């Protein structure tokens, strides 16, 4: 399926997902997939196949023409997740929650009190701050929005921000959210001046979403006005370069 990958086919291990823009197009795509399987003498178990779906569960997400949402089964698992009583349980919770971080604005900052528990030598101590972080993450995930799918028409909008806790950004197209992204500051970034932190947020954004942005036009919005002068600045420090 190499020539069809990411055009109308996604393959993950032994799962094949066929997507199309119209019923007529989908008919051709499904026929192509079945003919390729026959040609290569590969088999798909009919009882495990589903055809002509308007929405499909795939890798923990529900994908439809409206966009992409979390699988209700995963939402239920998060809702029922008990309060962690050990570092191992915190790690398990953050593993599941982190998989859906694209749905949560400022995920890294919200999770900071919990991620601190996983640092080497950190004593496990559950307090009010960690309880609040745990419950807030659960609530944000349970009420996660529908994310839109890129239309292929370019004109992306990026909103980036930085604080002393972390970097955050939003990728949008036609006024709709495609994904959120965030990360905590690295130890050496804590002492960065505001200007460099805001620039780091922009760089982080462009790197993490480069597969969407490559060869596409985009508008970048930041609340740090002086960044717009960086291209006319005569001298740049090593970080800015």
TrEMBL record:
GO terms for molecular function: RNA-directed DNA polymerase activity. It holds the Pfam family RVT_1. The keyword Cell membrane does not apply. It comes from the Eukaryota. Residues 1-63 form the Reverse transcriptase domain. Keywords: Multifunctional enzyme, Nucleotidyltransferase, RNA-directed DNA polymerase, Transferase. The keyword Membrane does not apply. InterPro entries: DNA/RNA_pol_sf, Retrovirus_Pol_polyprotein, Rev_trsase/Diguanyl_cyclase, RT_dom, RT_RNaseH_2. PANTHER family: PROTEIN CBG26694 (PTHR37984), PROTEIN NYNRIN-LIKE (PTHR37984:SF5). This is Putative reverse transcriptase domain-containing protein. It comes from Tanacetum cinerariifolium.
């Amino acid at each position: 399926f190499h020539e069809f990958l990411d055009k109308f086919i996604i393959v993950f291990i032994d799962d094949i997902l066929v997507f199309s823009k119209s019923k007529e197009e989908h008919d051709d795509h499904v026929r192509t997939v079945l003919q390729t399987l026959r040609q290569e003498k590969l088999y798909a178990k009919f009882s495990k196949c589903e055809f002509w779906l308007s929405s499909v569960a795939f890798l923990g997400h529900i994908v439809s023409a409206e966009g992409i949402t979390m699988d209700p089964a995963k939402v239920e698992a998060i809702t029922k997740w008990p309060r962690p009583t050990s570092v191992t349980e915190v790690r398990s919770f953050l593993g599941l929650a982190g998989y859906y971080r694209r749905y949560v604005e400022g995920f890294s900052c919200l999770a900071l009190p919990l991620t601190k528990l996983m640092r080497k030598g950190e004593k496990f101590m559950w307090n009010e701050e960690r309880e609040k972080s745990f419950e807030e993450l659960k609530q944000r995930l349970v009420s996660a929005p529908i994310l839109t799918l890129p239309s292929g028409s370019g004109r992306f909008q990026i909103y980036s921000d930085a604080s002393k806790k972390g970097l955050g950004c939003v990728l949008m197209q036609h006024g709709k959210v495609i994904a959120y992204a965030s990360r905590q500051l690295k130890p050496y970034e804590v002492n960065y001046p505001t200007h460099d932190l805001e620039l780091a947020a922009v760089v982080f954004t462009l790197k993490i979403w480069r597969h969407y942005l490559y060869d596409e036009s985009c508008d970048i919005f930041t609340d740090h006005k002086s960044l717009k002068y960086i291209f006319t600045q005569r001298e740049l420090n090593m970080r800015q370069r």
